[in-house]
Design goal:
Helix content is 51%, strand content 13%. The protein is of the alpha+beta class and 267 residues long. The strands form 2 sheets. Strands 3-4-5 form a 3-stranded antiparallel beta sheet. The protein has a two-stranded antiparallel ribbon with strand order 1-2. α2 packs across α3 (40-51) and α4 runs antiparallel to α5 (118-135). Residues 1-14 and 113-165 have low confidence and may be disordered.
């Protein structure tokens, strides 16, 4: 009998033993759907269609699947909160480093406003060295966090490389380059500056759809409010990726979040 018959028991209805497979497909559908629009009913119909099940055969598992969907959203929200915590931690470290730098500049200005003798110049250099020592802890803590992250992922990368014939041709990671529309740099304390610039309702009404082109693929998404409270856009889906030397493109999963800094405080 076919895989569909195994799953449906020959009559098209999903058996409880196949719920893991159903949930796995449900997760895939959720990851590729607009979470603001999809409903539990639409989700069940889509999964039935993808797995070749009889129409409405998943309705008898409605309660269990509903719980799975709630668990998925809860886990998704936890991940978003983790990202927020990481961002806040980095922001605090940056603030501390900035304060230390400002303190250093103040000390340098105080030293420069003295008599200006050779001995005072020597004192200036002493002040600089001491202020650098005070400024050093925040950057150090920031640097420590990054290697741990890299170290945890390094073994997996090395293991994957061993299985590839062209592992020695691994291209060194290039820095991410951002060129803004006007060429301007983002101002300092951006979150605070934009915390009250507009209302959430007005943003969602006025913001245009965002269209991004990646390797010739066009992805469009509308403005939304994330579960974290931030406002912005989410784009996602499977796209074709052309690789030189290959006749057929590779397929990849794209996920793009564009968040307005400070929008979490918009009412």
């Amino acid at each position: 009998c076919s895989g569909t018959e195994n799953m449906s028991g020959g009559g098209g209805e999903a058996e409880s033993d196949d719920l893991d497979k159903i949930k796995a497909q449900m997760k895939t559908v959720l990851q590729n759907s607009n979470l603001e629009e999809i409903t539990e009913k639409k989700l069940r119909r889509k999964v039935e269609e993808d797995l070749g099940l009889e129409h409405k055969s998943l309705d008898k598992h409605k309660e269990e699947l509903k719980q799975y969907i709630e668990d998925y959203f809860e886990e998704n929200e936890k991940e978003e909160k983790k990202e927020e915590v990481k961002k806040e931690t980095k922001k605090e470290a940056k603030k501390e480093a900035q304060k230390a730098e400002e303190k250093k500049e103040e000390e340098d200005d105080d030293s420069a406003s003295g008599a200006g003798s050779a001995s005072e110049s020597g004192d200036d250099s002493d002040d600089e060295s001491s202020s650098e020592e005070e400024a050093s802890p925040p950057p150090k803590s920031k640097k420590r966090a990054a290697p741990k992250k890299a170290a945890a992922k390094a073994p997996a990368k090395k293991k994957a490389k061993k299985d590839e014939s062209d592992d020695e041709e691994e291209v060194e990671k290039k820095p991410i380059i951002v060129v803004t529309r006007t060429g301007a740099e983002a101002p300092k304390q951006l979150a605070k500056a934009q915390a009250n610039v507009m209302k959430a309702k007005k943003f969602l009404e006025k913001a245009e759809d965002l269209t991004v082109e990646v390797f010739g693929n066009k992805i469009t998404g509308s403005a939304r409010s994330f579960t974290s409270g931030n406002k912005g856009w989410y784009l996602g889906g499977k796209i074709e990726i052309p690789i030189p030397g290959r006749k057929k493109p590779l397929w990849g999963q794209l996920g793009l979040n564009l968040t307005i800094v400070g929008s979490k405080n918009w009412d």
